[in-house]
Predict the 3D structure of the following.
Amino acid sequence: MTKTFDFSVNGKAVSVSLDNEDTPLLNVLRNELGLMGTRFGCGLEQCGCCMVLIDGQPEKCCAKPISTVAGKSVTTVEGMGTPQRPHPLQQAFIDEQAGQCGYCLAGILISAKALLDKNPMPTRQEIALALDGNICRCGSHNRIMRAVEKAAAQMRAGARA
Ligand code: FES
Ligand code: FES
């Protein structure tokens, strides 16, 4: 039986009708809503490339049934910024050339945003801990860490200005 699920994505109310209430949020974002930024990697909640914010908390969404998201607020990488107005994290990742293939980066940006939203001055260890659920097969970790530190510094400077 078809059911309708109402929630919000990147600040906009959405309503999707699906036959299967266990359909993963990731499939809904990509296939129903056309938001292709969030990636499918393992599909087993192991790699972190499907990370989104749900009510402000970073969560892997490749195995998260859509029924559990009803009434909640989802933020994807598309909701962080635009090419014209990138989030400071997105700009810092570009400046530091933090990715190689880039496949992991949407999930890493979301995890990093969740961290900086709570903790504007994280230590290197806190950044590593926040990104612990995100695998980067290219081994770009050092540049990714540098980019997060740079964005945090820029956001602090922006907040003071
Ligand atoms: S695709 Fe979701 S954790 Fe790997
Ligand atoms: S940049 Fe390729 S997996 Fe991270």
Summary: Residues 40-43, 45-50, 60, 62 surround FE2/S2 (inorganic) cluster (ligand 1) (CB under 6 Å). The two ends are 54 Å apart (CA to CA). Strands lie at 3-9, 12-18, 51-54, 57-60, 73-75. DSSP finds five helices and five strands in the chain.
